[in-house]
Amino acid sequence: MSVECYIDLHAHSDCSDGVDTPEELVSKARAAGLCALAITDHDAVDGVERARHESARRESARCESARHESARHESARDLEIVPGVELSARDGDSDVHILGYFFDPGNRSLLSYLETFRSQRLHRAKGIVRKLNDLGVPLDLESVIAHAKDGKTSVGRPHIARALVESNQAISIQDAFTRYLGNHAPAYLPKVFFAVEDAIRVIHEAGGAAVLAHPGSLRRDELIPGFVKSGLDGLEVIHPDHSGTARRYYGQLAAKHGLVATGGSDYHGPRADRCGLGGMKVPLHHLTELKRILA
Question: Which residues on neighbouring strands pair with residue 231, listed in sequence order?
Answer without folding.
Answer: none
